[in-house]
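Listing S7. Sequence submitted for prediction.
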Amino acid sequence: MSRRTSHAGAPRKAPADRQRWFVYVVRCADGSLYTGCTNDLGKRLAAHDAGRGARYTRSRRPVTLAYWVGVRGRSRALAKEARLKQLTRDEKLALLARAPLRPLPRPPARGRT
């Protein structure tokens, strides 16, 4: 059984439309909510907390993860993010209240395709 490889022989990444993406909401130190999407949730949260995330969250640290959902593909994640951003603050708070926060997903094992 052969694995898909790049020209250099390293395993290729799955196309962006087949990778797992995450839509998330963080609660900022001032109580505001920030919604975003990423393909590496742990790394993105660390960037927000280090002041290297979104401009909005840089002056509102620390941030805490309030909600996340896994989505298959970047375009679906962006669409879900856009729908969440259209919600009012009260609607977002209701979503956070009825969706218990789950542990962060584990990163995929290296070397798998």
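Caption to Listing S7: primary sequence and predicted structure tokens for the chain studied. The chain has a mean pLDDT of 86. Helices lie at 41-50, 55-58, 74-86, 89-98.
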